[in-house]
Protein: RNA helicase
Organism: Fusarium sporotrichioides
Amino acid sequence: MTDKRLEDIEATQIKSNYNEITESFDAMALDSNLLRGVFAYGFENPSTVQRLAIMPMINGYDVIAQAQSGTGKTIAFSIAILQRINPSVRACQALVLTPTRELAQQIHKDIVATGGFMDIQSHTCKGPAREDMKALEDGPQVVIGTPGRIQNMIQGGVLRIDNTKMLVLDEADEVLARGFTEQIHDTISLLPQSAQVILVSATMSQDLLAVSTKFMRDAVHIVVKNDEPPLVGIKQFYIAVDEEDFKLDVLSQMYEAMGIFQTIIFCSTRRKLEWLTDKLTSRDLTISAMHGDMDAVQRCGIMDGFRSGSSRILIATDLLARGIDVQQISLVINFDLPSDPEKYMYRVGRGGKSGRKGATISLVTANDMCTLRKIEQFYSTQFEEMPVNEAVSSEVI
């Protein structure tokens, strides 16, 4: 059996009026090319919110999904969008509203990556207006943007939503907090009566409840609570290095000390990733590298090799941190710290999935210490310093 009743799950963690949970992506009856894209993006098993939310979204229910950041809400509605839309219809079928342009671009990347084997187009309305107008003329099936920009495109007659069957409001509370309530009401009121509305948020305010009451029909309401600290089960270390140029030598020493096992190394840029890949390869290490500019076929091959163990070190950028979910990962190394504390969760959560234990080691210079302290404060956690010359034992990992 792939479906469970909610009574079988920890009651204090989950509340839902939809009474089934689907344990695997295979059990969701996804389009074969979509399933292939999900695995190519690095996912193996759905998170709790994905197991609860994807099927009611696919089945056309209005859905409110409430869970903290980093739990997989974006991938949940991305999969539902890709499953529901018709690739042969060149028109906007799914509209995603976000509080910021940056989040819109990240959602676009997730949809493009997950749908990499499907003939589906996505566009982020981020300006200039002329570029958006030209892109929308091609009829992308998924359109993403802030409420104000989307409203401008609709009012200008550039974006037609006659065929729109889904509207997703991501980080819904944040959207309302930024004063977009009127634009949201206007946009939803223009949708076809049959359109599905999905609200995704970490919190649930009175304003958001008012929106749901006005525009949603018999909504499935899913709340996934997590009373544990977000990084529980993950040991966090940092190694202080005198200069940026010394990080490579420290990394090589670490592998000499602990041997080679399944590891992900995160770099801040594609250029740094390519440089590090060349340097480690020249030191006779078998390396795989994956960045956001690769197509789905390339990513699929790399992830298959990494899962099988033919490559035991994967270097990646933040663009793919959300997708990587390989069950045997024990160690995540931050060659560079992320500038955004929330990205840290996407990175290091790979080493502590599904209650397993893991460790993360960050290589930091004096200039990085401010960023490290911000991450500690953001997650109410603390890093333990690891001396450069200390061997990394299996007990640490």
